[in-house]
Specification:
By secondary structure, the chain is mainly alpha-helical. The protein is built from 7 helices and no strands.
C-alpha cells in the first residue's frame, strides 16, 4: 500500500465519522431507516472503517521511529483493561454531559459514577486506546494513525462540551459540572449487582479483544 492509498483510507474514515454531526444527512438517514437502524448501521460502519484503517496502517511503507520493547506490550495490556472498564461502566448510565446517555433525566450529580472521573467516557477510552498503542507501534504509519485518532478523541471532548453547554445553557452546565466535581470520587455502588455486571462486561470485553486481535488486526496482542 502506498502513502497515497493510506491517506485515502484516512480521509474516508473521517468522512464517514462526520455523519453524526451533519444534521441534514443524519435526519434523512433516520427518516429512511429509523433511529435504531441508524445507530446499528452507523456502529457497523464505524467499526468496519476503523478496522480498515488499522489494516491499512499495517501495510503502509515501514519507516521505524523507535523500536518495540517487551514492557510496551505489558503497558498496553494494563491500559486496555482500564479502557474496557471505562466503557463498561459508562453503558446504560445517565450522562447529560455527553451524547447517548441513557435516561439523562434520572442523572444524580451526587452519585455520578464514572461521570465523576470522565465526563466523556467513550472519547476517554478512545484516547487511552490510541495513546497506549503508540508505545509498541513506533513506525511512521502507526504513529500517524494513533496520534491523529488520539487527538481526534481529545478534540471531540471539547466540541461536545461546547455543544452541550449551548444546549443546556451555560449557567445550568456550569452548576451541574460543579456538583459532579464535588461528589465523592470513590463512592460505593448504588447497586452491587449492577456493579458486578458492569465489571464482568469490562473484563469480558478485554478478553474478547485480546482473543480476536490476531484474527481481526493480524497481529497477536501477547
Amino acid at each position: 500500500m502506498t502513502w497515497t492509498e493510506f491517506a485515502a483510507v484516512f480521509a474516508a474514515f473521517f468522512v464517514t465519522h462526520s455523519i453524526p454531526v451533519r444534521p441534514a444527512i443524519k435526519s434523512r438517514l433516520i427518516a429512511g431507516i429509523g433511529q435504531c437502524g441508524f445507530l446499528a448501521g452507523y456502529s457497523i460502519l464505524s467499526l468496519g472503517m476503523l478496522i480498515l484503517l488499522i489494516w491499512s496502517a499495517g501495510r503502509a511503507p515501514h519507516v521505524e521511529l523507535w523500536p518495540q520493547m517487551p514492557w510496551q506490550r505489558h503497558a498496553v495490556h494494563l491500559g486496555m483493561l482500564a479502557a474496557c472498564l471505562i466503557l463498561a461502566f459508562s453503558l446504560g448510565r445517565p450522562n447529560p454531559f455527553s451524547f447517548g446517555g441513557a435516561g439523562n433525566g434520572d442523572f444524580d450529580p451526587a452519585r455520578p459514577g464514572i461521570v465523576r472521573i470522565f465526563r466523556h467516557p467513550v472519547p476517554a477510552a478512545l484516547a487511552f486506546w490510541a495513546g497506549l498503542h503508540l508505545l509498541p507501534n513506533g513506525d511512521l504509519a502507526h504513529v500517524l494513525l494513533f496520534g491523529v485518532l488520539g487527538g481526534f478523541a481529545i478534540a471531540g471532548r471539547a466540541l461536545i462540551n461546547r455543544r452541550k453547554r449551548r444546549e443546556m445553557g451555560s449557567d445550568v452546565w456550569i452548576d451541574l459540572d460543579r456538583k459532579v466535581a464535588d461528589a465523592p470520587l470513590l463512592a460505593g455502588p448504588a447497586s452491587p449487582a449492577g456493579f458486578a455486571l458492569h465489571l464482568a462486561v469490562g473484563l469480558g470485553t478485554f478478553a474478547t479483544l485480546f482473543w480476536l486481535h490476531p484474527y481481526v488486526i493480524g497481529v497477536t496482542a501477547q
